[in-house]
Amino acid sequence: MPNWLDVLLDCARDGEEKKVIARLTERDIEFMLSDWLSWARPDQRPPDVSQTGLAWTVWLVLGGRGAGKTRTGAEWVRGMALGLKPFTDHPVGRIALIGETQADVRDVMIEGVSGLLAVHRRDERPQWQASRRRIEWPNGAIAQTFSAEEPDGLRGPQFGAAWLDELAKWRRADETFDMLQFGLRLGQNPRQTITTTPRPIPLLKRLMADPATALSRAATRSNAYHLAPSFLDAIVKRYAGTRLGRQELEGEWIDERGDGLWSRALLERCREDATAVPPLQRLVLAIDPPASSGRLADRCGMIVAGLDCNKIVHVLADATMAQVRPHVWAARAAALYRDYQADAIVIEVNQGGEMVETVLREADPGLAIVSVRAMRGKMLRAEPVALLYEQQRVRHAGAYPELEDEMCDFGPHADGWGLSSGRSPDRLDALVWAVTALALGPKSIPRVRRL
Predict the structure, then answer these.
(1) Which end of the chain is least crowded, N or C, by CB within 10 Å?
(2) Whether residue 81 is found in the same domain as residue 216
(3) Same domain, residue pair 45 and 122
């Protein structure tokens, strides 16, 4: 049935899809449902060497919970065992299936709703020999199962392909992975596919940096059609933007450094519901302006924060802008000042000096502006603010992923304190100015009568 999906879509446009579907046999329907490459998302398709130019040996599939990672891995193994293009040019006779435990391999990778037994048509379905811990296809291809809890189980066998599921959960990830590499020695191009929700473990970080790794990403919402709407509504609303949500729903790599001033755990303790912010006595918009504009310019850090009657600082917005000209960020700052009824705009004038205030005055002559000048290094300015977080005296009203990434990446390096990328921590600088003005600096912020 060549190009059946295009034919069905054409019929649907002509209003004939019901007649076409009514004529389909059970075998036709089974074929259509098993034609994986017609349904798969781009991130679920094996990397195309002709397009990427990458002769990959590891396909790393990072995804959120329910993003379709298991289906991706199972379909890849099916394609390798049966010799289907574009997975491979010929059947791979020996395949390794590795999960956190033998139970995980059985319950998820083999017998699960998206596992190996489920993705095959009846006429090509392999036989699962549970007592021998292996699957055998009618063409003679064999997949053996292994537990990541027993790395030595991989000594001896050899393979032409391997599927590793939820590697980031494995307690003995490095040992198991290393043992597998010695056994991947059959055929012209032994390959392995890794399907996992990312966690900041060293092995995963090394694989992501390896030029022989092809990387695919998928968020939970990418697979929304196959998930209960109530799950998406409840879980996404609860965890969106948090470290757990970004890792488990968005499939993001959430890293942090051990020598930084902030940690992910600390920020989670300082998070509050955006609707639960108490009345604020003072409110500021802090700006860390870029020294230039254009494609290579730093961002213009802009943070809105307020202080309540208990001297708790509440971070209300991260409105940082990237690569914009001064009149653009100034207009945005003036709009935020009005929208939040801020008491003042706090600006850092080390770079730009009077020009910064002039640009803001042009945007709105009525702005209350407080200029501050950095007399100490970034670390010395940030350290007292980090201490306030430790004391639970700063709260994040909601989640600010990009700001929190900078906070958790801020630490010492060869040229002093900063981000590991070498970029300026513009969001963090603006945050430090906001918190300092509200809770640490001289009480020079003018107050606006609040309704």
Answers:
(1) C
(2) yes
(3) yes
